[in-house]
Amino acid sequence: MEISGTFDVYTRVSDEGARAGDSYGSPEDQEAAARACASRLGLLEIGEVVPRGERVRRSRRATATAEREIEFAIQTGRSADNRWHQRRDGSRFWANGVMLGLRREDGTVTELAKIMRDSSEEKHSDELLQYHLNLADAIASNAAEALFLVNAEGRTTFANPSAEAMFGWSQDELIGQFLHEKLHGNRPDGTPYPMSECPHMQVLRTGKTLRGQEDFFVHKDEHLVPVTCSTAPINTDGKIAGAVLVVRDISEQKAFEKMLAAFKQKTGITAKYEGQRTDYA
After folding, report:
1. How far apart are CA 134 and CA 281, in angstroms?
2. Contact between 5 and 18 (Cβ < 8 Å)
3. From CA 112, how far away is CA 77, in angstroms rounded?
4. What φ, ψ does residue 200 adopt, rounded to 5°?
5. Measuring CA to CA, which residue among 130, 167, 133 is closest to residue 148?
6. pLDDT tens-digit profile of 111-123?
7. Residues 6+ apart with CB under 8 A from 56
């Protein structure tokens, strides 16, 4: 929906005509559409929409922003704005506006034509999307687990701060690189680990989620980090566009298991006592 109006450059007297941007037909049909559009936006009362050519003096309280817009349009012939506007009932709407200078044959701008499009729904959708993006960013930035995003080729597109701290690579060093080659290119025995055999990268081909897979990733300084990794595909329009990996460092857990095994071996605890709970006073 669009509303248009013209303003005299010198007297600010308005010659207002609201119209629908897609209205055609007789002047009467266009005026009827104009009345409906203006009424719906709440900028004009139906009875205040006047036919083209009639002059109505109307006081106009312009804000500083609107005044700058007018002056710019006078000087350059065109100005644009995207901002909130207030209806007569006090409610607000977001509009994309364009103001054009109407010139005489000698090039002098005598009137300005203003066209506004109510984009409130798009604005609210954008704000909601930005809220969710900010929320997702806050979760990713503060998560204790390492989070990675890879594209359909397996190249890294995102790594959160925990990922940087866990494996020593900065995000700049990871972005655009094959994640498998950086963190998973060798087996624990040092032999090469082909990307085609990596279960995490196979998710990009199979589309099947991998949960809680125990593995070893390689730190930047080349020491092994025991981890559990869950990998899920990212689907866009029915196609696998990438994957998200959630990685947890289980070094402390593995160290405790090793210590417990050594303790059992040293003290001669047999398998039949394993898993039993012992209470100490």
Report:
1. 50
2. yes
3. 9
4. -70, -40
5. 167
6. 778 788 888 888 8
7. 13, 14, 15, 16, 48, 50
